[in-house]
Design goal:
three-stranded antiparallel beta sheet; alpha+beta; 8 helices; extended; about 400 residues
């Protein structure tokens, strides 16, 4: 944005008074409370308003300095808007996960959980609802519900936050309340955190995607491919590998995309959207594939010592949450090193010592979880997996 020679209110009043006095044939009174002073100050207020409007306009007409709605309108002149909107900005995304409904004792009665049944966190601040997923063996498409077979005590069903956004990302064990009674079930909980929730695309993210979109126009290159992939979801992790199959064997004129929505197990609809985006910019004469990552589960245990004045159970809970969050946030193709676990624990206030650190029942560098593998010809390390926390035990 150009640097303008702006003036303060006091400077404008002084310059106005000097200009009027210089053109007057006699000395004028510009003391506080005088008529001429009041006129000069009134003019200064209008001048400041015009000055602010010019600055606002200069900010809005350049993408690098614009914010909010101005970013939407600027990018909409070049990028296609999302269906049903006038902006290319990606909307908020709902957090998703699994719920376990239980009854106190198994019986011969078959129970049903309808799609749309709502639950909420213990503090009643975040609501979730059961979603339909034909991949679950207990799902009945005709009745749109999940059925607990006789003589079983619990059933696991998929669910998503009612309101999209990062607020739906809740820790394991925090969803414990049923908003409406579901016949035959006594309790509900989430054994694992709900993830993937994200607020609408930020200004900086949209600007970055716009840059990749412009650079990739009419070109089947990396810029165009990245812009197409990033335009499918507000939270997406991906890796692009050229000239190799997913198993590491050499394959010319081919590339694949490893894509994840942050959960490690993206739904088929997500992968199909990414595939459609890839094919929209894939050059003729080449082939492409889109795959989900392999999940490598991490089971962590450790013993910590807390400093005087700290509540040990509270610190234990904080360490467990921080370690689990850090593991889940590693992303595609990022290895989990055994030594990093203790470093995360030491980052929590009150932790003075960390011992007996185990990763999948092993210790030392041999316990590190690797998310890349060498190609068949040994030239490259290609990503194929993501690490997720299955259990973090801290004592």
């Amino acid at each position: 944005m150009p640097t303008l020679p702006t003036q303060s209110f006091t400077t404008i009043v002084q310059n106005t008074a000097a200009g009027i006095q210089g053109r007057a044939g006699r000395l004028l009174n510009f003391s506080i409370g005088s008529v001429f002073r009041a006129i000069a100050e009134g003019f200064a207020g209008v001048f400041l308003w015009f000055q602010a409007m010019v600055l606002e306009l200069l900010t809005a007409i350049r993408l690098s300095t614009s914010t909010g709605l101005d970013v939407d309108t600027f990018t909409a002149d070049f990028m296609p808007a999302l269906p049903g909107t006038t902006s290319p900005r990606l909307g908020a995304q709902m957090a998703s996960g699994q719920l376990v409904f239980s009854r106190l004792s198994a019986s011969t009665t078959e129970l049903a959980i309808p799609v749309g049944a709502q639950v909420e966190t213990a503090d009643h601040t975040v609501s979730f609802q059961v979603t339909a997923d034909p991949a679950y063996a207990t799902f009945n498409a005709f009745f749109q519900g999940y059925y607990l077979a006789p003589n079983l005590a619990s059933i696991t069903v998929p669910a998503a936050a009612v309101v999209p956004g990062a607020g739906g990302n809740v820790a394991a064990g925090t969803i414990t309340s049923m908003q409406q009674g579901i016949t035959g079930f006594d309790s509900v909980t989430n054994p694992a955190p709900f993830v993937n929730g994200a607020d609408s695309e930020s200004d900086s993210a949209l600007k970055q995607r716009f840059s990749a979109y412009i650079l990739g126009l009419s070109r089947g290159d990396l810029y165009g491919l990245e812009a197409a992939i990033e335009g499918t979801a507000v939270t997406i992790e991906y890796a692009i590998v050229e000239d190799y199959n997913l198993d590491g064997s050499y394959r010319p004129a081919y590339f694949y995309v490893l894509a994840d929505d942050g959960s490690g197990n993206p739904p088929p609809s997500f992968l199909q959207n990414v595939a459609n985006a890839v094919n929209s910019v894939r050059p003729l004469g080449t082939q492409a594939g889109v795959f989900p990552p392999t999940i490598i589960w991490a089971n962590v245990s450790m013993i910590i010592t807390t400093a005087p004045g700290y509540d040990h159970p509270t610190v234990v809970a904080q360490v467990a949450a921080i370690v689990a969050q850090a593991i889940d946030g590693l992303g595609l193709g990022v290895n989990l090193q055994w030594s990093q676990l203790a470093a995360w624990a030491y980052g929590v206030a009150g932790v003075t010592n960390v011992t007996a650190v185990l990763l999948n029942s092993q210790s030392g560098d041999a316990a590190s979880l690797l998310t890349t593998r060498p190609t068949a010809d040994g030239y490259w390390q290609i990503p194929y997996a993501t690490v997720k926390a299955q259990q973090v035990l801290v004592s």
